[in-house]
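Weekly puzzle thread! Below is a chain. First person to post its structure in token form gets bragging rights.
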Amino acid sequence: MYDCIIIGGGPAGLTAATYLGRFMRSTLLFDAGAGRAARIPTTHNLLGFPDGISGEELLSRMREHAARYGAELVNGVVKSIERVQTGFIVRTDSQAIEARTILLAQGVLNHQPRIPQETHDRGVAYGLIRYCPICDAYEVRGKRVAVLGCSEHGAAEAMFVRHYSESVTLLTQEVSQLSKTESTDLTQNGIIIKQVPVRDYSVNDQDIGVTLADGQYMQFDTLYVALGTSANSKLARMVGANLSDSACIVVDEHQQTTISGLFAAGDIVEGLDQIAVASGQAAKAATAIHNRLSS
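Winning reply:
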């Protein structure tokens, strides 16, 4: 019987594991190894790393930190969770484990452009394909930037990026969903709108090429993908926790879901998808879990 089982090995899960370890709580963390943070080439907006740090290096340090204070970290996929009188039962393919509380920190899944995975991953590694302008638009200031996603979300992201560059183009993967007002606002702010869908991409170590369905070819220094995300909230739904319209997990001010003893933190919760925010939510959740177990 663990005090807490954490599902998710990203910044939120590892922060909570460290806090709970220092609270002297028995903690087991499951990491499926598919988190978004690991794919960050270099982040420069985390305090304490002015020269930047890769996602892999950050997670390695956070794992070391959590393990130092007693958290058990294992690679594995949780298949189900079940409420029982004493708390919860967590099941994998090979075992069933009991816990008094659970913290869900599984994040979200990016909707990727239609591009071969190898090409996509190379583009991400070179900083040619990006997903978070809040994180790294500073790095593309003054460059040729494209935003993929002719929708309300894509329009908002293009406007955000426009603060950093005078050369911003909004592309579409499907038929444009822009309203007349959105199109006017974008145009008035100097953003080029391409209504013809993207047919193909090419990536080298310096720029990304985009070919439209009409044969037009363009080159950009960075492509921001604004196609949305899907929350990894299957386990929360399975146990009956309330979800938002976007399928993120609904929590209270202490990060507890609508199920007593079940907590959630990080991108899986509605809010700003940032490592600093995820870690802050995890600190709140871990403290609430500790206090709950002490009462």
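Puzzle host: Confirmed. Bonus trivia for everyone else. The longest strand covers residues 96-104.
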